[in-house]
Amino acid sequence: MKIKGRIWKFGSDIDTDAIIPARYLNQSDPKELAKHVMEEERPEFLGAVKKGDILLADKNFGCGSSREHAPLALKAAGVSCIIAKTFARIFYRNSLNLGLPLLESTEASEGIKDGDQIRVNLNTGEIFDVTQNRKFHANPIPAFMQDLLKDGGLIRHSGERLKGKR
């Protein structure tokens, strides 16, 4: 699986309330949640994020509550992948369950700049910064998790398995 997009860089400890403020959690419609994603952390994000863009963060991205609203809102806003030094474990699992790929890479987090264009190969963990002509590495997503992502998340993947397609 290959992904390409523009980088939106964030710092450390971006919690789920920064991703989607709690006042919007009285609903679960992804399109409505996407209208408020990162609105306080980076107000310009809402008007400028494009389908396929990639988030890059420092450590502990997605800390805070265990609600699935945060990765759901990011995916609905068009985010195709998130790369960080580390993720909060429940955010990591929720994201994969919803079909949003995540990679951990200290070198990419430190070396890639906001606005850079990158290509990500989920099979190999290679991250190539087209803007800087530099290569970075992350642990690749295991094949069984790539199947889950290709199917669009855990629910759809489970349905495919029940139908005997996986």
Describe the SSE topology.
Elements: E1 2-9, H1 16-19, H2 30-34, H3 45-48, E2 54-57, H4 69-77, E3 81-84, H5 89-97, E4 102-104, H6 106-111, E5 117-121, E6 126-129, E7 134-137, H7 143-150, H8 154-162
Parallel strand pairs: 1-2, 2-3, 3-4
Antiparallel strand pairs: 1-5, 5-6, 6-7
Helix pairs in contact: 7-8
Throw out a few tags for this protein.
7 strands; 7-stranded mixed beta sheet; 19% strand; alpha/beta; 8 helices; 166 residues
Structure in words:
- There is one protein chain.
- Helix content is 33%, strand content 19%.
- The mean pLDDT is 91.
- It has a seven-stranded mixed sheet.
- With 166 residues, it is an alpha/beta fold.
- The chain is built from eight helices and seven strands.
- The chain is globular and about 45 Å long.
- α7 (143-150) packs across α8 (154-162).
- α4 (69-77) links the parallel β2 and β3 (81-84).
